[in-house]
Design brief:
The chain is mostly helical and about 130 residues long. About 80% of the residues lie in helices and about 0% in strands. It has three helices and no strands. It starts with 5 loop residues before the first helix and ends with a helix.
């Protein structure tokens, strides 16, 4: 800034004010634009998450249905073996190897115990 060149200096000050005004307008417009974009992105992410949760739930339900079907089939086979054994008047034949493994895992005739009973049994063993 030279002394005596006030016209040029005033013009530069005006240019600076215009640049600052443009910056403020750009910030406000950008904020409004990106606000809607962020909101749309958030809605999209929520929709994707909801779809994933639904797919996971459906897969879980299919797995439960398959397990339930297998369990019913096993119980029916077990009941038919027992019925055949009673007709013959013998002791029931020992289950096949796969059924023996399953019966040791999921005994049909045992009473289920609660969590507290299981904890007490574990503690009493030690």
């Amino acid at each position: 800034m030279k002394s005596g060149d006030s016209v040029e200096m005033n013009r530069m000050f005006r240019a600076r004010i215009y640049a600052q005004a443009f910056t403020l307008v750009a910030l406000v417009a950008g904020g409004m634009y990106f606000k809607t974009e962020r909101q749309q992105r958030r809605e999209f992410d929520q929709a994707v998450e909801l779809r994933k949760k639904q797919e996971k739930r459906d897969a879980w339900l299919r797995e439960l249905e398959i397990r339930d079907k297998e369990d019913r089939e096993w119980r029916e086979r077990h009941a038919s073996i027992e019925a055949a054994a009673k007709e013959v008047g013998k002791k029931p034949a020992p289950p096949k190897e796969s059924e023996a493994a399953r019966s040791s895992i999921e005994p049909a005739d045992e009473k289920s115990i609660g969590i507290m009973d299981a904890v007490r049994a574990l503690i009493s063993r030690n």
